[in-house]
Design goal:
Layout: H1 2-59, H2 65-70, H3 74-84, H4 96-129, H5 135-147
Helix pairs in contact: 3-4, 4-5
Length: 148
């Protein structure tokens, strides 16, 4: 009989420990469920924001990529006049395709040169800020790039 009582007490102890473990697992699952609900709400909110942004973008007018990339500079205006005007551009001895190619090539060179100057000034500004070059050198280069 004593052995049966010992066995029953041992089973009771194991059941009590199991109950505590199950309670802890239940608490963890409840916390995970709360996190999942919170993340689901955030996800739904972000999906709604994205849908609204997409709708707003669809309502925007189309962008002329050439205008954005090249810009509305003097060279671009010259090219537009040549290509889009109703004037008769067929003059004797002038090939319009060669003229357009030369304008495009010149435009590319000017834009590249402008970007190179901007990059050089940016690097020199960083060098000046970190005191690697003197102000006189920076100003000399800056004045020369404005003249060119």
């Amino acid at each position: 009989m004593q052995a049966d009582i010992e066995r029953l007490l041992n089973i009771n102890k194991n059941l009590t420990e199991g109950e505590a473990k199950l309670a802890e697992i239940g608490r963890c699952l409840g916390e995970e469920e709360r996190k999942v609900k919170n993340n689901t709400e955030i996800l739904l909110q972000k999906n709604q924001e994205i849908s609204e942004s997409i709708e707003a973008l669809r309502k925007e007018p189309d962008i002329n990529v050439d205008e954005v990339v090249v810009g509305k500079g003097a060279v671009n205006n010259q090219l537009s006049l040549l290509l889009c005007s109703g004037q008769n551009l067929q003059r004797p001895g002038v090939d319009i395709r060669c003229h357009c190619r030369s304008l495009l090539k010149r435009l590319f060179e000017l834009v590249s040169e402008d970007h190179a100057i901007d990059d050089a000034i940016y690097c020199l500004s960083n060098a000046l800020n970190s005191e690697k070059i003197q102000l006189q050198i920076f100003m000399k280069v800056r004045v020369q790039t404005r003249v060119a």
